[in-house]
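Before relying on records like the one below, remember that each one covers exactly one chain. Contacts with other chains, cofactors or solvent are not represented anywhere in the record.
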Amino acid sequence: MGPVWLWLWLLVAEVLLPVHCQPFSAHGDKSLGASQPASHQSLEPAPAYHKVTPTITNFALRLYKQLAEEVAGNILFSPVSLSSSLALLSLGAHADTQTQILESLGFNLTETPAADVHRGFQSLLHTLDLPSPKLELKLGHFLFLDRQLKPQQRFLDSAKELYGALAFSANFTEAAATGQQINDLVRKQTYGQVVGCLPEFSHDTLMVLLNYIFFKAKCKHPFDRYQTRKQESFSLDQRTPLRIPMMRQKEMHRFLY
């Protein structure tokens, strides 16, 4: 029998959260524009996610820069999905392996110990999960573990408490059936919008760590549908022009950098 490989699957979709531009409200509001008076801010402790959001932003920029040098096409990823999945993975690691995972994300474990990192992600994921009248955001983690693996209950409890991760036993020798089970679960969680997320995996697979994210909101400045026109200037690459509907709008917008 050949070597057994551990495959890590990360399903990511685009939600580029401006976690570094403006802090979230300490009261859990998902809107990033409102700020509290200075007199009140000084009396309230900073949320735990403030310890991780700058690192997540820097990780996203470093990753984007590297991908841009290696990939010719479009780049689409969610910084929160990737970083939280790797941080979740580090829960099951020890010693040097755990350190390498967290340091690869950019954390200085002397300044921010692993326990603070996990509490920071717990705070961030909880804040993102709070209901909002302006948008709908669902983000979650699934762990599919081969029946041969016997994870410690302490790990499963921590994964659920800190990251909301749910663990399932899987039979990876039946690749088609297990793949269908995973895809069905993701499709259900994303209201049928993400279909066939997991292509294929080897019979030697022992674990699948999967993240899903669903985002729905209305544009702050809606586009006039009558201004939408088809044009051929959009290209997947230099040789494949596409004729697709392009939204148009001519307005003055104020953006905070």
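The CA atoms of residues 38 and 44 lie 10 Å apart.
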